[in-house]
Structure formats: C-alpha cells, structure tokens
Design brief:
single chain; Rossmann fold; 6-stranded mixed β-sheet; 20 helices; 16 strands
C-alpha cells in the first residue's frame, strides 16, 4: 500500500514514511492509494483484533509482530472499559458509541495511545537517527491525549500549542499539569485555527526544519493530519457496527447512519473511509456547533472561513479550518490533485473556495450536515438525561441533536450510532447548566462532585484529583512566537 499527496506534490511513499513525516513536505496530506474491502462479518469481535486486521490492510510495510505489539501496548489497562469503546443503547435503533474510556477521557485516546508505537517503528524503518519532535495544535482534547501517549517515550519530544482562552478549564488543567521529561505545553493568544496555521507553517518552513535537523531533531505530527493518527479511528466504526448486530438492532449487512460531532473533519473522515471499505453506512451526519462553516459548505458548496469565530460550550469543535476536508475532497473528486490544490490555495489566499455543482452532487448522497445552537445543545443534554438518565457531553449533544433533526426532516429512521466523543465531566460547567439545577458551585472541580451527586454518573479516573495538581507549563505566546517557543523547549537552559 502506497500513499499519495492530496496535492500531487510527492512521489508515492510507504506508510512508515507517511507516518514518520506526518504531512507532505511543502503542503498536502498523505492518502492511501486505495481502500481495501473488508466486510464486517468476517471480523472478530474483540477490539484489539479488529484493530490489527484493519491496520494490516493499510500499514503493509509493518510486520505482523510490529502491529500486534503496537496494538497490545496501545489498548491495555489504560482503558477503563474491557471492550475499549462500549456502546450504550438509547433505544432499539439508536446507540451512543462511548469513545472516552481512555486515559484522558476523550476519543483522541483511541488513536493516540497507538500512534507513539507506530511512529517509533516508522522511524526505525526510515533509518532515522534523529529525535522526533511531535508538534500538536489542539482545540482541547488532542493535546492531553497526545501528551499521555508520548510522555517519556524514548526518542521523542512533544510540544503542544493550545488557544489560551479557547479550551475548558478542565481541558487546560489536564494539559498544563502534565509531567514527563519530554513534554512542553504552550498557550497561544488566539484561537485553534491560529494554532493550527502556526504549526502547519512551521512544518512547511524548510529553513527552520533544516536548522533543527542539524541539531538532531525531526518534526512529526500527532494531529489527524498524520495518517498514523487517522487510520486507527476507522476501527471503532467497525466495532460499533458489530455491537449493533450483536444487540439485534440490525442484521449483518443492513445499513446504519453514523452521527459524528465534527470540527477538524478527522473523525467523520474515518467513518467515510470505513464506508468506502464496505461498512454498510447509508448516511453520515456531519454535526457542527454554532461555528457552522462545514454546514454552510455542504449546503452551498462554498467553504468560507471569513466569519466570526464563536467560542462555544463544545470547544473541541470551535474550528473554522477543517484540515481533513482536503482528504475528503480528494477522494470525492476522484483523486484530482490539481483541483484540490486550487481549492486549498484559494482558502490560503482568500479564505474561501467553491467546489462546483458536480462535486456538490457527488457529496449530497453521502453527507447530511447540520449546525446546532448553544440553546439546542443544552436542550439535548437535558432531553437525553430526562428520558434515559444517560449523561452526554456538549460535543456528543451536538451529534445527538443533529441526528434527531435529520430524522425529523428526512423521515429516515435507519438505525444510528452517535459518536460520544468526550466524558460529560470534560465540560462539566456546561453540562451542569444544561440540567437546569438551581445554585452554582464555586469552580469546575466542585461542579464535578455536584454533577456526580445529582446524576449518579461516575467521574472518570482520568479526571479525578485535577484540582490538586500544579501547573507545570505556564508559557503563553502570541501567534508569531511559535518558532522561538520550539527553540526554547528543545534547548532548555540555553
């Protein structure tokens, strides 16, 4: 299996090269040359075995032993659910896929507990003797998940940039309290898009890359622009489908809808790739919060980031530049790298691009998009808890409400899986407020305890005791300070 650039500016490469580099030098993302067919009925039911099978189809220059070891280390005692990603059924046709049982209580753990092992093997295969520097831009959850995955991993450093005022207090405390000799966490005076653009520019800065290479460092990424981060996400959609068949909600081969809270487009892209592989998916529900840039795009064919950036109660989705949309457009256009390049150039220069009627027609049958207001997010949290005493977070509520709206407007009652991407305790203030209980606690840590008392929902181990942890990372920079911050992180005391 070889990997091509979405912009046609790279020769085909092996998976270990794509994972080691993270993104295409000079711009563009690596995509597989094909999508192998894999019928869900031939798979085992255990999550690690599903992962090994799917990874083996794409990472063909890895040995079976390398993949087995990576999966065994990635999906071990660091998850608090035996099934890794359990499903909770709301009713016979609707299920929540709980992707938050890992060490940071968010869905990013499903990939980022695995990626460090894939990346170290990739470095060996590429004959690299340089220390790998993982650069991460995070809108909230990727940062902590990446820190936990790479913390104290030999031969790696990890530097996380996050929007100083754009994450929840719990998310920020998780990151800045991280220990580990190879970690750095840096706040940025800006939003997530500013962080993401800064990291992309650094990746594409040949002079800066050469400067650090001379000192023994090589950049890579833990964001979903890295294929090694994205491919493990395919696994849990197959896992969910098998759970639906085991429950009797569907028969093997019958279709499902997948509703996914969407910001950077990586999670829903993995669902789309599963569909291309043969998973019976009838519709993908692309659920956005009040930052409705994707909803507008799917409705009009025009991607326009020239708009107000809104800070919402679902901060991991507060994004105006959805990086993985580039991979989706490459696929739907039939691998037309020239068109993709033109669209991305338009986005970089003018903040917008238009895909045309042919692409709109091709996309219409695949994705239904919806934007959910802050008021409706709160209503959905309250509705689900009142009906089933099941507590969901704000990001999951966006997808849950979008599915309900899609069903009402389309009349489509196909059984559906909702990606539950974070523990409700990650955004406990908003969840607490949504339940409309009187009185207020003094801080988010007290709110966690109150929320536990009124709902009976256990606080994940990953989020207990955060109030007792000290902030170890306190640096804050403006958007022009990324390179100097990296130099300081890699040269402590210099």
């Amino acid at each position: 299996m070889l990997y091509h650039s979405t912009r046609g500016n790279s020769a085909p490469v092996a998976s270990s090269f794509a994972i080691h580099k993270g993104m295409v030098p000079g711009g563009g993302l690596f995509v597989p040359e094909s999508f192998p067919r894999l019928e869900p009925g031939v798979l085992p039911t255990a999550y690690p075995q599903i992962a090994e099978r799917i990874l083996s189809l794409y990472l063909t220059d890895y040995t079976d032993d390398e993949l087995h070891d990576a999966v065994a280390q990635g999906y071990s005692a660091n998850f608090d659910a035996a099934s890794i990603a359990p499903i909770t059924f709301y009713d016979d046709t609707t299920a929540y896929l709980e992707l938050w049982h890992g060490p940071t209580a968010a869905f990013k753990d499903l990939a980022l507990q695995l990626l460090p092992h894939l990346l170290r093997a990739a470095a060996r295969k590429q004959g690299s003797d340089k220390e790998i520097v993982i650069l991460v831009a995070t809108s909230g959850d990727t940062g902590k998940a990446a820190l936990e995955g790479f913390k104290d991993v030999p031969g790696t450093r990890i530097i996380v940039f996050y929007p100083k005022s754009g994450v929840s207090p719990i998310q920020e405390k998780q990151m800045v309290s991280t220990d580990g000799a190879n970690t750095a966490v840096i706040g940025v005076q800006g939003n997530f898009d500013d962080c993401q653009n800064m990291v992309k520019e650094i990746f594409n800065d040949a002079a800066f890359t050469a400067e650090l290479a001379a000192e023994g460092f090589a950049f890579s990424s833990a964001n979903s622009i890295n294929w090694g981060r994205l491919v493990p996400q395919i696994v849990y959609y197959y896992h969910a489908y098998l759970a639906m068949t085991a429950n009797g909600s569907i028969g093997m081969g019958e279709p499902v809808c997948l509703a996914v809270p969407t910001g950077n487009f990586g999670n829903i892209l993995a669902a789309y790739y599963a569909k291309l592989m043969g998973l019976p998916v009838s519709k993908l529900i692309c659920a956005s919060n009040a930052n409705r840039v994707l909803t507008d795009f799917f409705e009009t064919g025009i991607y326009d980031m020239n708009r107000e950036f809104i800070c919402t109660s679902s901060p991991s989705m507060d994004i105006l530049i959805s990086s993985n949309l580039e991979r989706f457009l490459y696929s739907v256009s039939g691998g037309d790298a020239e068109r993709v390049t033109n669209w991305q150039n338009g986005l970089a220069k003018e903040g917008c691009f238009s895909i045309g009627k042919d692409m709109r027609s091709a996309i219409r049958g695949i994705i239904a998009a919806s934007s959910i207001s802050e008021e409706d997010v709160a209503k959905e949290i309250r509705r689900v808890f009142t009906a089933r005493e099941y507590l969901i977070d704000t990001h999951t509520a966006v997808a849950s409400a979008a599915l309900a709206r899609y069903r009402e407007e389309s009349g489509d009652v196909t059984p559906a899986v909702i990606a539950a991407t974070a523990s409700p305790y990650k955004v406990c203030q908003a969840v607490y407020d949504a339940l409309a209980h009187e009185g207020r606690a003094d801080d988010e840590y007290m709110i966690m305890d109150v929320l536990r008392d009124i709902t009976g929902v256990v606080i994940p181990q990953a989020l207990r005791g955060l109030d007792n942890l000290q902030a170890r990372h306190t640096r804050v920079i403006d958007v022009s300070g990324g390179r100097e911050a990296i130099r300081s992180a890699l040269r402590p005391g210099a």
